[in-house]
Amino acid sequence: MEPAVGASDKENTVSDNAERGAAARVHSAVEQLPKPWRATGWLMVFALLHFVGVFLYIAGYGGYLGAKLGAAGQVVDPAAIQAEVAAHITTPTAMAGMYLVQFVFILPVLLLVARFRTQPALDTLAVKAFPRKQLLPWIGVLLAFIALEVAAVQWFDIEPGQFMETLAGSKHLLLALIIVFAAPLLEELVFRGYLFRAWRHSRLGFSGTLLLTSILFALLHAGQYHWIQLSFIFVLALILGVAREKSGSVLLPMLLHLLNNLTSAVVVIYFGIL
Questions:
Q1: I want to staple 209 with a disulfide (CB 3.0 to 4.6 A). Which of 55, 92, 127, 199 is the partner?
Q2: For 173-182, what is the mean pLDDT?
Q3: 87-170-83 Cα angle (round to 5)
Q4: pLDDT tens track for 243-261
Q5: Domain CAAX prenyl protease 2/Lysostaphin resistance protein A-like: where (predicted)?
Q6: Are 238 and 214 in contact (CB under 8 A)?
Q7: What pLDDT shows up at residue 139?
Q8: pLDDT higher than 60, residue 153
């Protein structure tokens, strides 16, 4: 005859089963995340696609010039074409074209690798609604950041550099649209979306993930800005990373990034203020 099971034993059994179920769900959720090393590998692929996009645009433009000269019955001089390409790639049109090629190459790959059998890509990238009450305080933080950045640029009398001088007063609509919309979309999905999701639950934790993604984000813009401006890009990335953590959504940092770039596009591209 089996011993009777008391009420306390039943409660303990139910509690143990609930705990095991919760642990299994947590384990399953963690398993659905992209692995840290997998994400690092794909980051290298994204970087490669970045340079492939630049190369293909340059090669395509050179081919276009050669075909144009050939169609007109003119002698195709490789040296002359190379010189013309070199002059072209510093123009706003070329900047817009190169980023568009990169965008077309990287975004589909990102959406593909973020998709898992049990987890949609949008979940991996944290594309979901965030509390509306968080928006105004974070806009306030962004405005304070922009004001501090403008003051620092004026205080240190920073040389704008070729990149900023090319943008200043160009009124190039396509480039402005790319800077305001395409760049925040792609960059946030990569840094505060895919990489943040992959590294956040690794040994890096929140602090390590925030620091690493912010450094990489700043390095992405190296060569375009003075080192002081790069330091502000790093601070901006920290702000965006904290916004991602607090909101649980990539949409909040994406919106803040958009507003920051919108300010820059209006001031620099349309008003020519450096």
A1: 199
A2: 96
A3: 5
A4: 999 999 999 999 999 999 9
A5: 172-262
A6: yes
A7: 97
A8: yes
Residue type, 204: L
Tokens 């190369």 belong to residue: 55
For residues 35-55, give the mean pLDDT. 96
Q: How far apart are CA 257 and CA 259, in angstroms?
A: 5
pLDDT at residue 4 tops 80: no
Average pLDDT over residues 196-212: 96
Contacts of 272 (CB under 8 A, 6+ apart): 168, 169
Least confident span in 37-46, 79-88, 222-231 = 222-231
pLDDT band of 23, cuts 50, 70, 90? very low
| Dihedral Cα 96, 97, 102, 107, nearest 10 deg | 80
Q: How far apart are CA 4 and CA 192, in angstroms?
A: 55
**What counts of helices (H) and strands (E) characterise the chain?**
13, 0
Quote the CA–CA distance of 73 and 55 in Å, as a whole number: 27
Give the dihedral sign, CA 200/206/209/213.
positive
- Ramachandran quadrant class, 169 (left: phi over 0; alpha: psi -120 to 50; beta: rest): left
CA distance 226 to 152: 12
Cα 95 from Cα 167, distance rounded (Å) = 10
- For the chain, the structural domain boundaries read 33-270
> Position 262: which residue type?
L
Q: How many residues does the chain have?
A: 274
Nearest 10 degrees: Cα torsion 124, 125, 131, 134: 140
